[in-house]
Structure formats: C-alpha cells, structure tokens
TrEMBL record:
Biological source species: Corynebacterium guangdongense
NCBIfam families: dhsB, PRK07570.1
A molecular function GO annotation: succinate dehydrogenase (quinone) activity
Membership in a protein family: Belongs to the succinate dehydrogenase/fumarate reductase iron-sulfur protein family.
EC number: 1.3.5.1
Pfam families recorded: Fer2_3 (PF13085), Fer4_7 (PF12838)
Keywords of the record: 2Fe-2S, 3Fe-4S, 4Fe-4S, Iron, Iron-sulfur, Metal-binding, Oxidoreductase, Tricarboxylic acid cycle
Positions of the 4Fe-4S ferredoxin-type domain: 150-179
Cofactor: [4Fe-4S] cluster; [3Fe-4S] cluster; [2Fe-2S] cluster
Name of this protein: succinate dehydrogenase
Enzyme class at the top of the EC tree: oxidoreductase
Record lineage: Bacteria, Bacillati, Actinomycetota, Actinomycetes, Mycobacteriales
Length: 249
C-alpha cells in the first residue's frame, strides 16, 4: 500500500512549523495510524534523521494520549475511534494523509504532534474527585443506586480526556469533556457531597481556559468514546443548580 504523508514538523513551542512530505511504499492496510508513524520513524532512525514526535501510551483506545489530527479531523476518518485504533484500510492506495497536532489555542504545541493538554487536567483538578470518610469501608449494600443511573454514569465516565472535542470545536470549547465529568460524578452516591462546589469550580476553570460552546455538535461527532451531545447541557444545568442552592452544596 502506497501513501503520501504530510507530517507536521515543529522543533518547539515558539518555533515555526511546516509539513514534511514522506513517501511510504510498503504500508500494510492493517496498520494503525500510530503504527504507520512507528514505521516512518524506524526508517528515519536508520537513516540518522530525527524521528517525528507524537504521543501514545496504551494503544488500546482507553488512555486518550494518542490524539492528533488526520486530514483535518481529530483521530481520523473512522467515527468514535481513537487514532491508535484507526486502520489504514480507511484510506485508498495512493492517498495523501496529512498528520498534525490537535489544533486549539488551549493546546500549545510542545514538539511536532505532541501538545500540552494540561488545561484539561486543570479542569479535573477543580472537581474531578470524591470525598469519603476515612476508616472502615462501608458494606457494598449500604449505598443504594439504580441500574439506569449506574448505566448513565458509566456512559459518561467513558470519556478518555483526549481533547478531540476541543480540537473539533471552532470555538475551542471543552463543554463535552467537562459535562461528561459532571454527569458521571453527579450520579454516583459518593460524588454528591461536593456536587455544587464541583460544578462551580470546574465550570469557572473551563471558562478560563476554553472557548464558548458553538452549539453545532462537532465535539460529539469526533468523540472516540461516543459521549452523547446531551453532556454539554450538564455544564449549564449543574452550574445553575449550584447557584440556586448556594455555597453550602
């Protein structure tokens, strides 16, 4: 399988970047996009050239580290699939594939396709936790939940924090990410104690680092975890609930 790759090269955060063209004549259609980059880098190392920098970790679709842009779309053409699981059979022999970092003002480029996504971490630091009383753990049957609430919480807990939603949004909003965390934690018994405080602090941090929601739904379309667009409404709903109930909740 032959592919023409245009890969983003940028030496550092303050350096100018450009696309570097690489011709690959022996790609396997079952390779993932990251395996393709591995293949290119192996050739570069053998030729004493500097390999391309990109981020990855588990390569199983659960860590969110592999976020990058493929032909202008976060992760690639396959819907609800992270870059590490996107296969080259999604492309035709002879195609040109453009690989670049996630594009957002909130994600400054560190090098090549590696970006700083700590803005998402700062949102989580403001409320992505629960408070529990120290001591003997309670019996499992003392915390009553229902099946529907548990399933809904798990659906939103599936967010892997990759940042694709931010890169897809023309305003650089992170409402799908933040809303997913707010919904998840509001539905769990141990997450209700600081529900109001969480909403206030996480939404304030969200608005400090990211843009306003565009209301078009690009975020849900590219989300590899399939987080529903309804999660966006939780940002306004949980913040309004916290304002109504006051600082004690």
């Amino acid at each position: 399988m032959k592919l023409t790759l245009e890969i983003w090269r940028q030496a550092g955060p303050n350096a100018e970047g450009n696309f570097e063209t690489v011709q690959v004549d022996d790609a396997d259609s079952q390779m993932s996009i990251l395996e393709l980059l591995d293949h290119v880098n192996a050739g570069y190392v053998e030729a004493n050239k500097e390999p391309f920098a990109f981020a990855s970790d588990c390569r199983e679709g659960i860590c969110g580290t592999c976020g990058l842009m493929v032909n202008g779309r976060p992760h690639g053409p396959g819907q609800h699939t992270p870059a590490c699981q996107q296969r080259l059979n999604l492309f035709a022999d002879g195609d040109t594939v453009k690989l670049e970092p996630l594009r957002s003002g909130a994600f400054p480029v560190i090098k090549d396709m590696v970006v700083d996504r700590s803005a998402l971490d700062r949102v989580m630091q403001q409320g992505g936790y629960i408070s529990v009383h120290a001591g003997t753990a309670p019996d499992a049957d003392t915390l009553h939940t229902n099946y529907e609430a548990n399933e809904l919480a798990l659906d939103h807990a599936a967010c892997i924090g990759c940042g694709a939603c931010v890169a897809a949004c023309p305003n650089g909003a992170a409402h799908l990410f933040t809303g997913a965390k707010l919904v998840h934690l509001s539905l769990t018994p141990l997450g209700t104690e600081e529900r109001g405080k969480r909403a206030r602090q996480m939404v304030d941090e969200l608005e400090t680092n990211f843009g306003h929601c565009s209301l078009y739904g690009e975020c849900a379309d590219v989300c590899p975890a399939g987080i529903p667009l309804t999660a966006v409404s939780a940002v306004t709903r949980e913040r309004a609930r916290a304002a109504f109930r006051g600082k004690d909740d």
